[in-house]
Queue: 2 jobs
Job 1
Amino acid sequence: MSTGRLEMEGDDCSFPPDSSDDHSQRGSVASSATLSRAQDVLIYLFGDSAVHLSVEGLGSITVQELGRSVREALHIPESAQDAFAFWLCSPLLELQLKVRHQPYKLCRQWQDLLYRFTEASEEDISQDEPFLQYRRNVFYPKSKELQLDDEGVLKLLYEEARSNILTGRYPCDPEHWMGLGALSFAIDEGSSLDSQQFTSTIREKKLSSFLPAHVAMGGGGLLSTLRGKSSRQAGLEQNLLGEYRKISTSAASPPEPTQLLHQYLNTCHTLPYYGCAFFFGEIDKPAQGILQRGKRKAVNIGICLEGVYVMDVKEKHVLLGLRFSELSWDHSHPEEEGDSHILWLEFDGEEDGTPVNKLLKIYSKQAELMSGFIEFCVELKSASEGGAAADTDGEVSQSPQPARKDDSNKNGRGGRRGMLHRQSSVVCSRVHSLNTISYVDNGKEIKRLKPKRAASFFTRQASAPTYSAVQVTESLEQG
């Protein structure tokens, strides 16, 4: 599954022309050929619930108009109206809509969007149906979210965060997912259950209702015996019970629902990719011999106002996390049949004690969409901070290092950015496991450390002081 936001200011990712009238009308917003009279519309929420509306003029209604009705139905206060947005979603693609978009028309163009931005087969595309969802606005700052105190609003944000935790979209460490699982249990079932009631409820609803699926289900397979699985499940139950007891005994009186919701969301805020829009792509696996060459690894790419995060789909951990001040980027279109769309990420690294520039290739038909998304986030964040380059929100796992004196003018960037550190947490980057291209600038020309790459592509000029472009010389061209 991949996500994004189309037709953003400052990019050229626009929707394709409206499709012909013989396209099937799919999804929750298209139910009748007669669109002038009142039609039933379902707006889905996280947590298996939906808002049921009766809408007139469905064919031309905009997101802005629909938003007023949904906020009224959900009793969302004016102070929180920017916290949510409409998304058009399916198992193949997720797109955040702008206020001027008309959901019904976009549903009619869904197949065109899937052909353009996914690698799905024709059969999958023909059977895919989008639905309209009301969920967190990816451009809503976490600092504002911390100030929200309406229980209904917090519950909506909680249900979305919980879904992302349980599905592994937000990778987290055991101390996080165990604590979040206990909070989730207390929110759903109350904080005053005894051990027997707790165990009975857990076994009725299953651990996967409170812990990430890959944790609750375990590795499985032929080598995992039933007894081993049972023992592991019992251990998880006991650990979850221990965390739950901390909640129930931490205060003289049971905590209020808003306290638990705030605590859950605040824990999620420590994850750097909380609130990201997600895209799907692949990266090259490190070569481990002749037979390993050419293989790729599936990755999720999360992009938010803080930076870019590349995550291993299978292993549920971060491969690379960068603030915008730590990266340069660009995208390239296929030059020949069989080539891929590529998003290029450039960042500072180290090889054998030598500071180097590293390039990561992300193969994805959404490369152009991701590039425009990054540019929009950079400009939005720069404007909100008044051009300040410092990010003090505390979500990133790497710590900037002091610039070296002899690096102060390299690449015209005013000093090298902080090196990435290898750590054991799933949240921290694993640069050592990436197949990157590395090179150094010796003051006159760029010296190649790995095989040649394609022609110059880092030509983007900085539009804000929070990131910089790499100036590539002709010495990097394939000769």
Job 2
Amino acid sequence: MVMSLRVSELQVLLGYAGRNKHGRKHELLTKALHLLKTGCSPDVHMKIKELYRRRFPAKMVSHSELGMPGPHHPATVGMVGGGGAALPAGLTQLTYEGHGGAPSPAALLPLSLLGPGKHELTGLTHHLSTSATLHPVHPDVKLQRLPFYDMLDELIKPTSLASDNSQRYQETCLAFALTPQQVQQISSSMDISGTKCDFSVQVQLRFCLSETSCPQEDHFPPNLCVKVNGKPCNLPGYLPPTKNGVEPKRPSRPINITSLVRLSTTVPNTIVVSWTAEIGRSYSMAVYLVKQQSSSVLLQRLRAKGIRNPDHSRALIKEKLTADPDSEIATTSLRVSLLCPLGKMRLMIPCRALTCSHLQCFDATLYIQMNEKKPTWVCPVCDKKAPYEHLIIDGLFVEILNSCTDCDEIQFKEDGSWAPMKSKKEVQEVSTASYNNGLDDSCQTSTGP
């Protein structure tokens, strides 16, 4: 109850108890909590109830709500949202736990999200649902790293969206508070050069399946609805159904909620999530503070990883051209294009994923730019996953592109060497003469008489 009082009400309480009523809000809270901890008269208890009733006239006050942490409790100094903002039902505050009284980042979470035995807060236990015990509050869920976002802080760690399966539509409420440093990071990243206000440092909301076997992709619960600080949050639009009668789905991706977040160190931010329960499936959500990066930065980082030794590709060529005794057809050469399959232009930065088994490369610049607009990270050659962290620049293709500037296709031989391919016109012309090792000549097209 004390922690929900405003500055003016705390000053009234301390003045009534004959204590010093000057100082900042967290200092006033410290004094008020110390007053309760050391024991106070029944008159002071009544004054707290009176101030609380005046602050929340519709809320019934039970005697147990005066219970406060004892002197050995790990958190004795609290901080709440100011400015007259009341937390929704089911929310309580985690307190500052800084060393020597210095504030450290505070988070505001539902009591159901505090692990058993971690915080012995009383008075709000009636808000706990019976389903909370069926799911781990903070499962060991990890979301996949997003190449275009560097994570700065974890505002709400991956948290189960618990449902009791008794009702089709479920709803839960979470909250967090920003530290002064986080507010500064967001505010200073504002870009108003365009038509709308953008932030490079963002508060990002993500959903995924509650699976712990591997890092999870973004995955929205069905019929998802999100409100941040009471305002509806825009979600990606529904994709057209691939088949008749199939329910349309939203493309699951991170949600930038920065524009709806209160850039305040004292007023908490609340997120209300509603969704449709699914039997046998559970979901988790998390909130991160991230810094958005551009395709040029990702390209720079890829270059910084270095160029893969050409011997790796030569070994792959030899492996592919090694005669298979069980095969009736022996492969003695491989033809590879020097054009990017994405833009049909000559490769500038030849790359492919470590997981790809083919020699054909694609252009790193174009591939990263396309995934900046629509992140799929699928190899344009083999249609398999080619995530950014698996990309490598192929040193052999860099050598080939630098030494052969006038042809668009090459041929690899069994020993790992290569030769430029002739154009169709040139092949027709030389077919009347002796071949004379023509593939090793210059790749310039000969002209007719």
